[in-house]
């Protein structure tokens, strides 16, 4: 048994683990398409993968605004859940630990990359991949449902809070490579979100790869039946990016 554990530790020391954060506008989670299916695909390609089902507002919170009276999940609960998962995976001894997030999950992994507390604890991700992400909480292109899902019934009106969670305003705090993807025809999260993030990272010289597809929509994860032939090539691009060691 001790020998088995030693071999496992040795193999992890040379391997990469990826935390998968599904989307769902911080109100619910796309657990299969942007969660377990993505993790399974990463494992098939030689990467350890751990899906994070972080706290969300829930259907009642979204539909009936129950958090206004009874409280419920809201920022920073999601980030704290990510920190806990990062500590857990880091403790397993992997050489590199990164994160991939979809839609609101993309916002979460960017938030994690910018998080000063994670940097102080030395548990920041080694790379992040925000996929068609929610980015801004202030710009006119904001995804309003995600903003309310994240900040709750009242705090979404607080300008200071909105600024603090607009990822494009804090790109200078990102110290890891970023793989950023979105589609021009995204009907859910406006394409300007990723464009804002790309511009901010360019200004602050954050190493990143940005690919914007003309078609592909939103919410497709790794499923080729839910997007265009053009956009699904993100999978090959991402694997190449990982293999090339751009992090």
Set down the secondary structure blueprint.
Elements lengths: L1 H12 L2 E6 L10 H13 L3 E4 L6 H7 L2 H4 L6 H14 L5 E7 L1 H11 L1 H6 L6 E4 L12 H12 L3 H6 L13 E6 L8 H12 L4 E6 L20 H10 L4
Parallel strand pairs: 1-2, 1-3, 3-4, 4-5, 5-6
How is this structure best described in words?
This protein has 247 residues and is an alpha/beta fold. 43% of the residues lie in helices and 13% in strands. The chain has helices at residues 2-13, 32-44, 58-64, 67-70, 77-90, 104-114, 116-121, 144-155, 159-164, 192-203, 234-243, and strands at residues 16-21, 48-51, 96-102, 128-131, 178-183, 208-213. It has a six-stranded parallel sheet, with helices on both faces. The longest helix is centred in the middle third of the chain and has 14 residues, at 77-90. The radius of gyration is 17 Å and the shape is globular. 46% of the residues are buried. Mean pLDDT is 93; it is low at 1-10.
């Amino acid at each position: 048994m001790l020998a088995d554990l030693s071999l496992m530790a040795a193999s992890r020391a040379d391997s990469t683990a990826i935390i998968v954060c599904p989307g769902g506008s911080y109100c619910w989670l796309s657990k299969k398409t942007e969660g377990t299916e993505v993790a399974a695909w990463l494992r098939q390609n030689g990467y350890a993968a751990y899906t994070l089902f972080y706290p969300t507002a829930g259907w009642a919170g979204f539909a009936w605004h129950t958090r206004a009276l009874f409280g419920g999940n809201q920022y920073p609960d999601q980030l704290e859940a990510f920190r806990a998962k990062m500590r857990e995976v880091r403790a397993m001894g992997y050489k590199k630990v990164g994160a991939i997030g979809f839609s609101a999950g993309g916002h979460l992994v960017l938030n994690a990359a910018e998080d000063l507390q994670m940097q102080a604890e030395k548990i920041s991700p080694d790379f992040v991949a925000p996929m068609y992400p929610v980015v801004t909480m202030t710009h006119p292109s904001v995804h309003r449902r995600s903003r309310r899902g994240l900040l709750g019934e009242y705090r979404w009106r607080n300008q200071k809070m909105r600024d603090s969670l607009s990822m494009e305003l804090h790109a200078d705090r990102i110290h890891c490579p970023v793989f950023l993807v979105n589609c021009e025809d995204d009907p859910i999260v406006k394409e300007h979100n990723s464009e804002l993030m790309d511009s901010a990272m360019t200004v602050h010289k954050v190493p990143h790869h940005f690919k914007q597809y003309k078609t592909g929509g939103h919410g497709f994860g790794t499923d080729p039946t839910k997007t265009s032939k053009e956009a699904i090539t993100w999978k090959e691009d991402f694997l190449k990016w990982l293999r090339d060691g751009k992090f």
